[in-house]
Design goal:
The protein has 252 residues and is an alpha+beta fold. It has two domains: 119 residues, RlpA-like domain (Barwin-like endoglucanases), CATH 2.40.40.10; 65 residues, no CATH class. An eight-stranded mixed sheet has the order 1-14-10-11-9-12-2-13, with no helix packed on it. Strand 4 and strand 5 form a beta hairpin.
């Protein structure tokens, strides 16, 4: 009887050991099958692939994928160049359309700001937009936009700029139209009084937007000063793609 009992105990111990080893092997398999970082979206000539910080296992339905290590992108700002800010200046410059039609004569510093920002608002309410290099005036030409379709200017691919939602990106890293979640903006009070949900969209690009840099469209210079104070020196951000919260910004 004691012999049979001993045999039964030994068998039980062996069974537990086999089960434990199987569980360990299964866990090892799960870890080894964790997805490797996907760099296909950011492979571009002359640019090092970004690290996708994706702990294993990753639940895509939860939080999206960060495009870099924490705070790996520089946050910068842009806004509309506004003629009213330069009314007291007398050094003036002529600007033209790309076809050579005269648009008007404006303060030289306003024209410089218009070239830099890409879009501008005239004192009479017209909206102008960068239209490329040309052989007239300063060598940079502009076009007048439909103020109802593009009240804040036009971005890449004829996209209307949206205050506090549009960002300019390097399209070699981030596709135009891609919604992004920026945790550093989540919960931040905007100058117009609404609370930001962290969601923005890649609506624009520019010659100065290179690699890990994102320009946030804030409409005006006073709004820029407001946000600079609100962010308290935060100049680096962690953009995420495919975050479920921001899918409402994806244009079908």
């Amino acid at each position: 009887m004691r012999l049979l009992t001993s045999i039964g105990v030994v068998a039980l111990i062996l069974a537990l050991a086999v089960t434990s080893r199987a569980d360990s092997a299964s866990a090892t398999t799960l870890i080894s099958e964790a997805p490797s970082p996907d760099t296909s979206k950011i492979s571009a000539e002359g640019i090092a692939p970004l690290k996708l910080v994706m702990p294993a296992p990753v639940r895509k339905g939860c939080c999206g994928y960060p495009l870099s290590e924490e705070q790996g992108f520089a946050l910068r700002y842009y806004w509309l160049a506004m003629q009213d800010r330069y009314q007291d200046e007398y050094d003036e410059t002529d600007i033209y359309t790309r076809e050579g039609f005269f648009i008007g004569t404006y303060p030289a510093r306003f024209v410089k700001a218009l070239r830099m920002e890409g879009s501008g608002l005239l004192s009479d309410g017209r909206v102008l937009n960068f239209h490329g290099r040309c052989k007239f005036g300063t060598g940079t030409c502009f076009e007048q936009l439909d103020r109802y379709e593009y009240p804040f200017g036009r971005g890449a691919g004829r996209r209307s700029l949206i205050p506090f939602k549009s960002v300019a990106v390097d399209r070699k890293l981030i596709s135009i139209g891609e919604p992004l979640y920026i945790p550093e903006l989540d919960g931040l009070m905007m100058p117009d009084g609404h609370m930001h949900d962290g969601c923005v969209r890649a609506d624009d690009t520019g010659s100065a937007i290179k690699q890990r840099k994102i320009d946030f469209f804030v409409v005006s210079f006073p709004n820029f000063r407001f946000l600079l104070d609100a962010l308290k020196g935060v100049n680096w951000i962690t953009p995420h793609i495919e975050h479920p919260r921001c899918e409402y910004l994806r244009q079908r």
